[in-house]
Amino acid sequence: MDDLLLTASYVMHEPGAPPASDWGVVINGERIAAVGPAAALRAQFPAAQRLHFEGQLLAPGFVNTHHHMYGVLAHGIPLDKAPAGFWPFLQDFWWPRVEDALTHEMIAAATELACLEMVRSGVTTFYDCLEAPNALPGALDVEAEIVRRWGLRGVLSFEATQRQSEANGQLGLQENAGFIDRCRRAGGLVSGMLCFHTTFTCSEAFIRQAFALAAERNVKVHAHVSEGTYEPQYCRQRYGRRTVEQYAAWRLLGPQMLASQCVQIDANEIRLLAEAGVAVSHMPLSNCEVGGGFSPAPEMLAAGVNVALGSDGYINNFFEVMRGAFLMHKARLLDPTVMPAGLVWQMATVNGARALGLEGVGRLAAGCAADLITIDLDLPTPASAGNLADQTILWRNPQYVRNVMVAGRFLMRNGEIAGADEAGIRQRTRQAARQLWGA
Questions:
Q1: What percent of the chain stands above pLDDT 90?
Q2: Where are the chain's structural domains?
Q3: Superfamily assignment of 62-355 in CATH?
Q4: What angle do CA 407, 154, 75 make, to 5 degrees?
């Protein structure tokens, strides 16, 4: 198999550390064979095909650890009255008007657009939660077919819940279990995860069943945790403990758990998450949209929790998500040193890969997956190794992502996605949205 040597003005091989100038990456098949100074790599791999990205940063692809790809269909939906709080948002709007109305056709249209947006935004790996109780069974296979065609590294799950009925909840759990098994047999870049919604839509027995199904398959379990004030209040009233404390009492906290949101949690819950090795997906922008509050992400990171980033299917420009994490906590804590740019880059890459249980993803090193992006550095001020982490977060957007590679395959070259009918994808998404709104 022929080697491919990619060189760039700067290479961010280890997120969190300053990028190196005039470095390169050697790709062999789906993996990275070597990383180092460009001159040394040219001497070591003289027969390699060469591509140079002048004036660009070569970096690991972003890892979006929490997506709802179907969420785009709700953007701009007509409302007589906006929901006044987190619980009304779910009960009066999101569940009846969006999730319960989804069909396979709508899911397919939204997935196609989500894949397009992720490639444009430099996301090479993602985790998606689909809740569409009336689209069971087979909803995950609809998503998977499209994700495989796009060539993204995707972890897909169905958000099982008993909010409609026990029977529908069981369908959701089996949707996950069957999908995980099929993906494992098929191999490739698409895999599955067990997922249930929350403590207030799922019983203890149901939650334990989800963890048991995951343990049987050696996969992670995902749940939304304390996205707003409702769940900790519910758990206090029902169980006498806050949400994370209750999971600890059930002895379910551990490295097998991915907890998303974690907005309304206290210091003791942060300690429990850290001690148990639970990974957390932080969504700074969607937390604002639903009025959930500001997640104590810096406090979790300081305690040793692996905190990653997710878009929540709300604003899927991943540079905006990084900007939100970079800026919001400085204001919340009145401290401009909080959430430095290098740390945010770690959250967007290697922390995300670890949160999803993916080895060899999120960094550029020999043996790692050849998942990478290049970003145009035509900035208004000079670029340097010392300022690029900040500059790219603050001043770059999807239009500056020039190349995207997953598993050694270019999904985008020089800003072009071969064979993608972008106008047609957007038109089909608008049509699906009209169908959803009419339902």
A1: 93
A2: 3-60+372-406, 62-355
A3: Metal-dependent hydrolases (3.20.20.140)
A4: 130
